[in-house]
UniProtKB/TrEMBL annotation:
Family annotation (InterPro entries): Trp_repress, Trp_repress_bac, Trp_repressor/repl_initiator, TrpR-like_sf
UniProt xrefs under Pfam families: Trp_repressor
SUPFAM superfamilies in the record: TrpR-like
The protein's name: Transcriptional regulator
Membrane-spanning intervals of the chain: none
Lineage: superkingdom: Bacteria
Keyword terms: Cytoplasm, DNA-binding, Repressor, Transcription, Transcription regulation
Localization in the cell: Cytoplasm
Gene3D superfamilies cross-referenced by the UniProt entry: TrpR-like
Amino acid sequence: MDANVRYISHLVNHLLSRSTPEEMESALRDLLTDSELLEVANRLQIFEMLQQGVPQRRIADILGVGIATVTRGSKAIKARKPPA
């Protein structure tokens, strides 16, 4: 198994072992800087808004991020969907 895959698996298991929202937030704050945590939170918001059909430019305005950030989120969602 590739080391990176092993490390990601370890991270996932570490986070899954948290049993409360408070423990999860604490684990994330221990692992990430404040700006990294905000970036991850924004990315989740981008995904959710895109799935709700909110236009990309509107998402960028609401979250105060660049349109390129929203576009990257859109491309990530499309890359995960199997072709129809």
